[in-house]
């Protein structure tokens, strides 16, 4: 019996019981769609983390002001500004593993440009900051030590700020006001995207730390050297935990902390946190795919169930086919092809549903989803295997019938 | 002298039902020459169908021998028997056994699926056989759209499609009215005159009277075997009152 004829017989058999075939396929359709959507969601999550790692820059450790515990109660980072600008310079100078350290002072406020205004965060920092964050300038220039020394009224703005204040026209050399202080835009930062907390990193204004302290944040801070945080970049190839240890030692010494006294700062290895997130997003993706595969398996069992019913119902047909010359392998192939056809058609419809579903999930839930050809091929291949695997038993059962008993079956 | 088409030697068939053994055939020896038209008669349960199933290579005997042409077939494997059935034997059943929701043409072509005949040839051969049984205009009809007599004609066309040497019919008229029965017998007589050996099971003397030889079973043994002067079914049909054609 040639293959095309077998396929036609199978399609015919499926057409005779349209509703039943459709319901059986539904299991596979949902299974394949679930695998595709789950893999898309999982890969989307992985891609997001990978992008965050790229946007953070590599080997980043952040030091935050504030004690972990003060008098038994958690003080929280930034509650007291225990770090100073000079701590940052000392870290860069005295810890071998450190490539750069940038202190930063944060404020929030309206940025006004002509009629437009935009509420954002601004940071006072040093030229090292862009190097630590591996953050290129898209347009214009960064600030330099002369700007630092003179507390020059200059700023760098992020892409989101540029877009909201200036639309498509160039922001370079334009003057913006923050807390009524006029500041000239000398550069626009490259796009960074979201950080690990989901915040838009391009919604930012950077200025020399001296400018922030003396001109923008106001008199109360003018004399202080304190900062909220220090962003540190460890040299490529250096041991991160050793670097962390040396940083802690230096800071404790500079803060005159006795042995037994708690740190009055936090050290967080951001790169490590992201790597952990990356690992867990991989596990999550795998888990999602595994759960989805179970539904494919359930769909396969549905096929087996229906094929068994079908073999029983069509026992006389099988007997007749054998009477007119079908060998057991002809019967085996016929039912196997029927099962695989069911699962393959189901698989193809599942692709449509899965692709549509992924786009919908991405749209409605706002999750990032990444469709992959491999996932699609995998899902359909799996569907075919499910068809063969679960179709084999009923098909074999049919092929082992004795012609005379099958013909006489009531 | 050529070997007979069918030669059985002490053919025995027993069925095991739990501890009970039912002897359906108890040593049947018979010879049927090519070109004969044989009617098999006997009361219900006498072993007629069992005998036909063995002749049709649908079942293995418990003991004894069965030669079909030159070949001893009683020890062949299931798949080898399938090939024998496909090449040499055509079956006609009491309840037609057509595939539902399948056209007459595809029903007739069914045996050709299993010997590698190409699609175009399958269709042309099936169409030829349907025309031969007078159903050239019913090729696309499904069984449910045909009368009983027409369905049995489709089944006969299917039995013929592989040019068998032997056609076996187990109560082919059992589900038909008397006029249609005569029509079917006329068709079988035509085939027989063209050289095909035919064995028909029936419990109606009228039907058996169209055969050239009548054998009688009782309790699994051959009780009687005699030559019969066959009536001509075509002539019989002409005598019957005409009915509106089906
Ligand atoms: N598959 C079977 N299992 C058990 N007994 C059977 C089976 N087929 C037939 N028989 C028995 O064998 C005997 C002959 O049956 P069968 O050949 O069908 O008779 P007939 O066709 O002459 O009516 C009967 O007693 C019947 O009950
Ligand atoms: Mg019978």
Question: Overview of this structure, please?
Answer:
The complex is a heterodimer of chains A (410) and B (246). Helices cover 57% and strands 18% of the residues of chain A. Chain A is an alpha+beta fold and 410 residues long. A 6-stranded mixed beta barrel of chain A has the order 3-4-9-6-8-7. In chain A, strands 2-10 form a two-stranded antiparallel sheet. In chain A, a hairpin with a 2-residue loop joins β3 and β4. The longest helix of chain A is centred in the last third of the chain and has 44 residues. Chain A is elongated. Chain B has 246 residues and is α/β, with parallel strands linked by helices. Chain B has one domain: P-loop containing nucleotide triphosphate hydrolases (Rossmann fold), CATH 3.40.50.300. Chain B is built from 8 helices and 10 strands. In chain B, strands 6-7-8-3-9-10 form a 6-stranded mixed β-sheet, sandwiched between helices. In chain B, strands 2-1-4-5 form a 4-stranded antiparallel β-sheet, with helices on one face. The complex binds adenosine-5'-diphosphate and magnesium ion (MG). Adenosine-5'-diphosphate binds next to β1, β2 and α1 of chain B.
Please, how many helices of chain B? 8
Oligomer state equals: heterodimer
Which strand order does the major sheet of chain A show?
3-4-9-6-8-7
Number of separate strands of chain B: 10
CATH class of chain B: Alpha Beta
Strand order of the largest sheet of chain B: 6-7-8-3-9-10
Largest interface between protein chains, with number of residues from each side: A-B, 24 and 28 residues
The largest sheet of chain A, given as strand count, sense and whether it forms a barrel, is:
6 strands, mixed, barrel
CATH T-level fold name of chain B: Rossmann fold
Write the CATH homologous superfamily of chain B: P-loop containing nucleotide triphosphate hydrolases
The major pleated sheet of chain B works out as:
6 strands, mixed
Mean pLDDT value of chain A: 87
Can you tell me the overall shape of chain B? globular
Secondary-structure-derived class of chain A: alpha+beta
Unreliable segments of 5+ consecutive residues of chain B = none
């Amino acid at each position: 019996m040639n293959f095309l004829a077998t396929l036609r017989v199978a399609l015919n058999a499926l057409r005779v019981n349209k509703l039943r075939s459709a319901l059986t396929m539904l299991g596979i359709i949902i299974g394949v769609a679930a695998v595709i959507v789950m893999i898309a969601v999982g890969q989307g999550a992985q891609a997001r983390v990978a992008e965050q790692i790229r946007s953070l820059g590599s080997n980043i450790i952040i030091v935050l002001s504030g004690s972990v515990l003060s008098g038994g109660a958690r003080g929280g980072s930034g509650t007291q500004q225990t770090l100073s600008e000079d701590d940052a310079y000392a870290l860069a100078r005295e810890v071998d593993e450190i490539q750069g350290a940038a202190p930063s002072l944060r404020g929030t406020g309206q940025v006004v440009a002509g009629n437009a205004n935009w509420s954002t965060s601004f940071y006072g920092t040093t030229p090292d900051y862009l190097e630590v964050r591996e953050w290129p300038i898209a347009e214009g220039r960064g600030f330099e030590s002369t700007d630092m020394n003179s507390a020059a009224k200059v700023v760098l703005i992020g892409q989101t700020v540029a877009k909201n204040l200036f639309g498509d026209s160039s922001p370079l050399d334009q003057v913006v006001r923050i807390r009524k202080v006029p500041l000239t835009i000398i550069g626009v930062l490259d796009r960074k995207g979201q950080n690990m907390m989901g915040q838009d990193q391009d919604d930012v204004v950077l200025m020399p730390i001296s400018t922030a302290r003396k001109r923008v944040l106001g008199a109360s801070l003018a004399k202080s050297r304190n900062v909220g945080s220090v962003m540190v970049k460890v040299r490529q190839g250096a041991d991160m935990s050793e670097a962390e240890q040396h940083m802690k030692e230096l800071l404790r010494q500079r803060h005159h902390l006795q042995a037994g006294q708690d740190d009055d700062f936090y050290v967080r290895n951001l790169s490590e946190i992201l790597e952990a997130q990356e690992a867990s997003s991989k596990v999550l993706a795998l888990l999602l795919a595994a759960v989805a595969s179970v539904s494919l398996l359930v769909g396969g069992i549905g096929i087996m169930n229906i094929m068994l019913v079908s073999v029983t119902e069509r026992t006389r047909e099988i007997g007749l086919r054998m009477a007119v010359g079908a060998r057991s392998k002809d019967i085996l192939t016929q039912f196997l092809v029927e099962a695989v056809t069911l699962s393959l058609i189901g698989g193809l419809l599942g692709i449509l549903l899965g692709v549509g579903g992924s786009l919908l999930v991405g749209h409605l839930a706002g999750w990032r989803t990444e469709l992959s050809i491999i996932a699609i091929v995998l899902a359909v291949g799996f569907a075919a295997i499910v068809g063969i695997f679960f179709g084999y038993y009923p098909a074999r059962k049919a092929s082992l019938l004795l012609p005379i008993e099958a013909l006489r079956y009531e | 002298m050529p070997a007979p088409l069918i030669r059985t030697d002490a053919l025995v068939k027993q069925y095991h039902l739990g501890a009970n053994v039912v002897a359906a055939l108890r040593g049947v020896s018979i010879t049927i020459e090519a070109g004969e038209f044989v009617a098999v008669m006997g009361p219900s349960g006498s072993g007629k169908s069992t005998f036909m199933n063995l002749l049709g290579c649908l079942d293995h005997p418990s003991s004894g021998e069965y030669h079909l042409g030159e070949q001893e077939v009683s020890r062949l494997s299931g798949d080898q028997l399938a090939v024998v059935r496909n090449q040499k034997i055509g079956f006609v059943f009491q309840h037609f056994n057509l595939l539902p929701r399948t056209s007459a043409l595809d029903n007739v072509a069914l045996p050709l699926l299993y010997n590698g005949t190409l699609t175009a040839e399958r269709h042309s051969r099936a169409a030829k056989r349907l025309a031969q049984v007078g159903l050239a205009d019913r090729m696309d009809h499904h069984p449910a759209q045909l009368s009983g007599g027409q369905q049995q004609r489709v089944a006969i066309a299917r039995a013929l499609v592989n040019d068998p040497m032997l056609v076996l019919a187990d109560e082919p008229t059992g589900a038909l009215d008397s006029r249609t029965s005569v029509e079917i017998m006329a068709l079988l007589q035509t085939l027989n005159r063209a050289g095909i050996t035919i064995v028909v099971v029936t419990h109606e003397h009228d039907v058996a009277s169209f055969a050239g030889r009548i054998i009688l079973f009782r309790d699994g043994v051959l009780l009687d075997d005699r030559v019969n002067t066959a009536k001509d079914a075509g002539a019989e049909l002409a005598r019957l009152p005409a009915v509106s054609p089906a």
